[in-house]
Fold this sequence. Notes:
Elements: E1 2-7, E2 12-19, E3 24-31, H1 41-63, E4 72-78, H2 82-99, E5 103-107, H3 108-120, E6 126-130, E7 135-141, E8 144-150, H4 156-166, H5 174-181, E9 194-195, E10 198-199, H6 202-213, H7 218-244, E11 248-252, H8 259-271, E12 275-277, H9 281-284, H10 288-300
Helix pairs in contact: 1-2, 3-10, 4-6, 5-7, 6-7, 7-8
The structure holds adenosine-5'-triphosphate and fe (ii) ion.
Residues 9-12, 80, 131-134, 155, 157, 160-161, 172-175, 178, 253-255, 257-258, 285-286 line the site of adenosine-5'-triphosphate.
Amino acid sequence: MICLGIEGTAHTAGIGIVDDDGHILANVIKMISGESGGIHPREAANHHVQEIPIQLEKALEEAKLTYKDIDLVSFSQGPGLGPCLRTAATAARSLASAIDVPIMGVNHCVAHLEIGRKVTGCSDPTLLYASGGNTQVIAYAGGRYRVFGETLDIGIGNMLDKFGRETGLQFPSGPKIEQLAKEGKRLIDLPYSVKGMDVAFSGILTAALQLRKKDASMEDLCFSLQETCFSMLVEVTERAMAHVEKEEVLLGGGVVQNKRLQEMTRIMAEERGAKMFVPPGRLCIDNGAMIAWTGILMHKSGIRMTIDDTSIRQRFRTDEVDVTWRS
Ligand code: ATP
Ligand code: FE2
């Protein structure tokens, strides 16, 4: 069985083609570019309208397949930005009906976890999912992926991008902040904000921007931002691992490409006799391959959807998904 997955929750229009052994036959990714940083849902949706047909052709070419070879179409049903989700869903419905194959709506956060499990070979991990719009610690318990901790305000990537926008870094700012942080020498005190199992980033953003106005160096600020925010993430991840007694930690989301975050997570894991797993970069960021693979898992476990089941779900929570493909 071959599944074509369409990702379009936010900035990225992605098309992935995956077979039922989990071989990734194509994974094309097109992110909206914009110097200004802030994401305009309507603009991103227009981007996806333009790009999805182009990327579809590219993906088929990459996989050396035609539409006749596709057995299932899946798409990111949520969570995400309404106009973007509607565009991806419309594309998926049109395609599935044109080529007369079943359709499957996929939870985007669950897809990050499933592709990570598949490609890294870990079996029952705690996922630290840190992206632009999302920051969650997720683990499997009692037939569902439960959220053990999450951001109470903005996603960590959005925080880094907002800091970057206000201080003149180009978008996305995460990679630039990582570079600057390497030159940082002084750890500046920023409000460390862990509440129970949850984290918050807007206070740190405000404090960092105020310090910048008082002439703190960009290098020191980027270093301190990373050290503070990543410590928060690692702390709640460790607490979740201890709670659910799991010995694997999986990373997912664009921010986990950051080498310092990987290093801090690896040290935490090793200290507790656990192991860290990181998927390759193109499978960490938003991508269609993860949507295709999760579509296959769902289909194989017996789930079927009609067009009526494919309405988008902007606030689709990770723990609403009945994980029928795991025992
Ligand atoms: P989602 O819909 O899952 O929230 P997204 O489109 O907002 O996804 P991703 O594609 O997963 O996000 O990742 C983009 C984010 O990752 C941006 O905020 C970017 O600044 C951040 N990022 C990318 N590389 C790095 C890095 N090396 N260090 C820190 N952050 C990074
Ligand atoms: Fe994502």
